[in-house]
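Review this chain:
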Amino acid sequence: MVDTTARRRPLSIWLVNLLVGFCAVLFSSASLCAAEHKRVMVLHSYGQSFKPWSEYAKALRQELESRSPWPLDIQDFSVITARAENEKAEVEFAEYLEALFSDHEPDLIVGFGAPAAGFVQRHRAGLFQNTPMVLTAVDQRRVQQAALTENDTVVAVRLDIPRLFRNILQLLPETKKIAVVVGDSPNERFWINEMQRELEPLKNRVTIVFYNELSFEDILKQVASLPPHSAIFWTQPQVDAAGAVHEGERALNTLYSVANAPIFSHDDAFFGREIVGGPMTSVSDGARTTADVVVRVLGGEKPVNVKVPPLEYGPAKYDWRQLQRWGISESRLPPGSEVDFREPSTWKAYRWQIMVICAVILLQTGLISRLLYEQRRRQNAEMQSRQRAAELAHFNRFSTAGELTASIAHELNQPLSAILTNAETLESMLKSPAPDIDELKTIVGDIRNDDERASEVIRRLRSLLKKAPFELKNIDLNDVARETAEFISALAAARQVDLRAFIGSTPLPIRGDRIQLQQVILNLIVNAMDAMASLPDAERRIVISTAREDDFAEISVSDTGPGIPPAKIKEIFEPFFTTKPHGMGMGLSIARTIVEAHNGRVWAGNKAGSGVAFYVRLPLH
């Protein structure tokens, strides 16, 4: 027999070796994948939502997601210490980053914008100096070239400031003033100095003002009242003079809503609605170039060997909608310019809709004519309703005057009787051979005073009964309340009611109709007198007071009557609601109508104990 054991043993050894080798390859592949996992630390200037850098960061992420051969762990950090010059806080932030990555340094540092670039360069010696770094979305003037190490590379842009302002003057040659909207952070102060220096040749042609010393609220006031032939140059105010931080798109949207001049900018991160346009740096170009550099550096290429020339402006592009709004002819645009957001002609865009509309219009002509006829009828009905309401209010004043007749006659009788007595005395003294001249002067003065008292009573009554259209004037509610209290005081005395008026010393200026507001107060006082008719004389009290409540003038009329049933308190201002045996139920309804016509409100509430208080609140003017 043949011994097959010896033959099977080499085969078994070969299978074992193959299995071990496969496992080794598998584990080494897993280790390789783990080693190729890349950690990227991204430093944002000021914050992750600050334009334009936030748009560059977003675009770079999208580029890397489609082009990076490695899994990327991108961790974002905001250099908020760059908002103000605080060296201690900046050092502590650098120490925080070092402690955070103490176990595993990042594979790459990417800094967006000049504030982030300045921070990382100042702390480069102690901040992962062996880690490659890419600075991007930063002007070449903001990079400390002498501080760059062999582990650093820059994707810079070059801002041609004079070209930006010449573009404004080319589109708007009559421009006399350019307002630069900018903040007051250290980075922004640098650019103000650069612009002032580079725009020196234009100072005899146009006035350039900088708003860095204003809060954003004050900037809005300035751009809302710019003189004719003005323009606005927008560089987002990251930190204004008041220390307020502005990020995202809200600040530009707010500025656009109040500005009375066209807005220009240098970065297409702001392009798309508010900006007219011009030569601008391109977010997409910057993101693609930066992605190329990041992939090369993560792939092992030495950063110092990755050289990228500064990115220039792309072709000038303009928003067609803004050109139309500000009347800028396309013939003024630089050659090769792009015009975006152009709207097609109405006929081309809505041809079939227009045809349908024309057909519908023919069918609707008769209906529209009918609607216009009904509208005229409704307007006539509303006019008649207002006229009836005015007549009803006038009738209500006559009704109130009727209740005042006895007291008015009594009030007139007193000065008239005094005039008669003084006149008889004067006549008797004049018959004397040597009349006392001083006494005669005194009597004549008394006659004049009594005549003025009678005239004032008649004036008040005529004012109340005058039939005049609703007319708003500047009046003092204190004066209206005081005059009404004096007018009705005689009736209060006749009814044995203790009427007290507490009129505030601070003026309460309002826009109102004096006669109608007097009618409201009279209605409330007369209602209060009627409510207390069954009380003993000593318990009849009415208090009128005025006060200021925030931005409103308020007058209250309170009594000591039986009050209003809680279930009925919401109905008292409805028409024809009354608690009087012979009442019409229109007084309070008319009062509410008058108060609401003055943009005010009237309400009532029972007082603790007994009585009710009515309140009228009107907006101060």
